[in-house]
Fold these 3 entries.
Entry 1:
Amino acid sequence: MTTMMLEKRAELAQSESTSLQLDGSVRRAATRSPLIKLEGLTKIYTEGGVDRTVLDALDREFYAGEFVCLLGKSGSGKSTLLNLISGIDAPSRGDVVIYDGPNAVRLTALNEQERTLFRRRHIGIIFQFFNLIPTLTVLENVTLPLELNGQARDARSRAQMLLDRVGLGNRLNTFPDKLSGGEQQRVAIARALAHDPLLILADEPTGNLDEDTGDTVLTLLLELTRDAGKTLFMATHAPEVARLADRVLHLDHGKLVSDQAWRATHEIGD
Ligand SMILES: Nc1ncnc2c1ncn2[C@@H]1O[C@H](COP(=O)(O)OP(=O)(O)OP(=O)(O)O)[C@@H](O)[C@H]1O
Ligand SMILES: [Mg+2]
């Protein structure tokens, strides 16, 4: 990533809220305030009567426009943390607070249905195995989040704009099983951005792709989230991805053992 791109990211990280417009331009307000706050976030699983603390009282803030990369061994709790931030799962103790403009939304204050509605409206998720709906076309997969949110009016034009951006504007009526893995993940990226969410969560988005395809998908994901000024929180096994991130977190034995601003370490390291 070039210095200019990093500077652009840093500038976007100053912004409080941003939204990607239909013409591809970005509207944003300025002043730095957290977008996500982890407060004593704890997840304990009980197996055979024995407690296992997977996430141990995490306190952390993340800001609008940041690209946060989450590293850690298999089983260290990366997916668990993403699932708590998205509200797919509920913590054992502590909370996740998401700031929707001036409103602080405490996820534990919502019931499961309210969390689902919140997620649908404000979060875009990209999974390792794409998770497209096989009975829907490419276009329908991308318009679905908008329709579920009652935003059907602009759905088609917005989906078309995003699918053009990921290079699949000519495959609108194709079904997912006719697409390559990389193409499916590009549709999933368009779907994750369709409803202009506050936050994009990606759980090993290149984990099921070969290296070249993974690079292409990653570049596209970074470009699109950066251009839209979105916060991207990505779990990955790939240390080279961390080189592109604004912040790198390491999970180990339930704790965040490091939280580095890559730019600072890079400048010092050079
Ligand atoms: N529903 C569950 N019940 C009991 N233990 C669970 C459950 N879900 C996850 N775990 C345990 O929590 C730990 C963290 O799992 P998690 O899936 O978050 O790890 P991860 O860092 O995403 O790993 P990977 O890199 O392999 O995807 C693991 O030890 C796992 O066995
Ligand atoms: Mg995982």
Entry 2:
Amino acid sequence: MVKNKLLLINPKNQQFYHGYRALPPIALAIVKALTPMHWQVDVVDENFQPLPDARYDMVGITTNTLNISKAYELAAMYRAKNSCVVLGGAHVTSMPDEAVQFADAVVVGDAENVWTELIADFESNRLQKKYYSGDNARFLMPDISFYGHNYTMYGIETSRGCHNHCAFCGIHMPRHKNYVRKPLDMIIEELQQSKNPFFTFVDNNFYGNDDAFLMQLFEEMLKQKINKKWQTGVSVNFFNNKELVKMAAKAGAAMFFVGFESDTGQSLKELNKNNFRQSNNIFGDYRSIIKTCHKNGIMVSGNFMLGIEGDTEQIIAERAAFFKNLGLDECACVILTPLPATRIFRKYHEENRLFYTNFPDDWKHYHYGKSLVKHENISPERLEQLAYEYNMQFRQRFSDMAAAFITTGSLKSTVFYYLYCRSFGKYSSGFFDRLASSMQK
Ligand code: SF4
């Protein structure tokens, strides 16, 4: 029997992180697992693999706002070859009406709920233009056979959704209104399946206000001797439970990304970040989180934002000093960016304050390093210059690797930290490259 042929593509990010291969494209591993056996599935990560010449019956492309121009370009190319093109991913989910103009069909939300139906519709010539997944996430074991040794670390989800509602985040619109956790035995099985000694819990909010589940997960990771180093993003309330932090460390936590974002009650209110907004001592509260992590041998990464409503050059200088003095292991600053489907996008669009609105072409500017909104106190050029200068000050050096070793007491955690920094072009060293590849063999 002649098989139908499906090509899945992770498009190249044209502007940043050329050759990015820190994390695998999990969405494609899920779609591959969902595709029936009578299809032949090829996966290409355009960041480091060439596109094949062969003709495919269907081409599925995963997207985000950074790679959307390339995704639309590829869609046009494959449609010209008479392939049916299906687009999905974060950007398409936020902008389905835009995306559908470039594709034969779009998946809005999670593929798990609609991919089987989409394939059946294609096979019976009834393909619809839009497939909506609904709010409830469903989990399955991804097909990771195409990962090989191509990625720096493994990526695994334990949940979808988030209880918080930060003004700059698009997670709730139009998907993931509920917070849903993946079954624990599935998480453990997946971790056992990966040979990579490093991984990231890629959840939007790994904590999920669920101490009991995480305690159980960490205990199981220890019991099953997972023995890998990992990182993840957590909201600040994770650190209220010191026992949980201790158990995370025992289960291999090397670094936490913490959503600090800003330094004053007023600016946190603007971002709708509710933790510490009422605090009398935000610096002390943040510092205590970092001390708790360091005491347990875990590093902390925390970004801060520029261009928040009310910011002046003086306020930004104070914020940069605040973050510099916190004792973070990794820090960067980003310009407040109204990604599609976020509340701030709607607000600035309605107020006619966005500089770039010729979409989809102008999505290329929505990358956290560009000033996109007319600000009351600071010119766009000055804001971009400040972001550049502060990021230069926060760049990684060899001494940071030494500090990472002192903090964690672990060579494996230090190498993991190095790999993370290298992925984002922050630091690179032949010595650590050799060390890392010997650990990954
Ligand atoms: S905590 Fe993270 S995932 Fe949750 S709303 Fe805020 S930015 Fe989004």
Entry 3:
Amino acid sequence: MNSSTVLCSIKHWCFQAMVVAVLVLLSRSEWVLGGLYTGEQSLGGICLAVIVLFFAVTFGLVLLAIALPPRLTKAMLRVLTISVAIYIFEPAIRALFFVPAKLETFQKIILIACTLMLAWMGSTLLSSSQWKRMQAALLFGGFVFVSFPILAVRATDSIQVRMPAGAQAQGATVVLLLDELNANASEQIAADIKQAGGVPRVHRIKTVGTATISVIPEMFGGPHMPRARVCAPTAVCDLSAIFDFSRLRFAPLDRVHIIGFHHPYCAAQGLASCAMFAPPNPPPITSLLCSFDRLRVGRRGSQCDWLPPEGWDVFRWRMRDATLQSPFWKSGGTLYAHLPFPHPPGNLPRADLTADYADNLRLASEIVAQVWRQGNERFGASFRLIVTSDHPLRPELWCRHGKYLETGCGVKPTGSEGLVPYILVGGNEAADSVPTDNGKIFTGKL
Ligand SMILES: [Zn+2]
């Protein structure tokens, strides 16, 4: 082989490798959009990680292509191109009604094996010109799949948000959304409210989903999306519906203030004030690499473990302080605070999930009592407090967290799964109505 032939084949492999690298990046769209949606990654960090991954994949594959015999290189690049392209569509495949919501490791291995087999068949049967067309089609399909929801959200209608029934123009209401609050935690919270001089009216309501991502959109008037996932910087989708936070319209007269995390609440229109907080996260390149780690989640001491307890504690106290210092306390209106209490992890050294959750619950209950005292002092009889949650504790998720793999889980069923508290304190009891589930809190439909 002379030098120009070598150069030519390197150029050829380089192009093939770049196609694979672009497809790999398209398969990471959920990581990119999720980082922007939750505010957990900066735009600069995302760009850096994406560029590093692109060049790493391209160079890695070119080096491999030079090292392997040409026939094997061709097969390898073709199989990779097709497998990665199928991987881009994974969220849509997983949202199909016959695919179980949670895949076991052996099911994932079967899926990967089938993908590779399909890719192998596709790669051996295609001629060179057919392969070029196939590559173009895969790239085009990937781009359309990723960008369609981002464009589609532009066409969605705006949603007028209603305050929970009983909110008066002159009064002040705080809605505390305590993340992962079990229904049977009501007694403890009610006891602390009583001690702070309040008279709580305790109810239990159904939750419309099992995770924040599917419940909060419905709470603000969105459709029921049990398999919602992030599909645009301010929106979630499932196969049949889209919910975009930037389409939410709050009435300025309601003077709504928001303190929140995980969702882009501040993209909504008509808010009197809004503050978003991001929990601690691995640096962007580590975080992007961890997004490939689904098969390996659950290993002890993994770099990819989410919410490291140290940073988590700083984050949640910052959110508590922001709630107690919100401009709401001057202006009145409504304060909606989505707080990471009693959301795990906890900060007791060497505690298992049960002990940490009990401690977090104590902290959550103290915050509720503090908010009640502060509201009562500031607004008197016109103050109303609502305490509820998006969903109960999720042991199936938290038992796989690094800390609890070490210390143990120990969570027993509470007998009230699928229910969350709805506690009302103060306000006009006759004007208050209790929603049947937490998907209807801000819709006015009871
Ligand atoms: Zn949640």
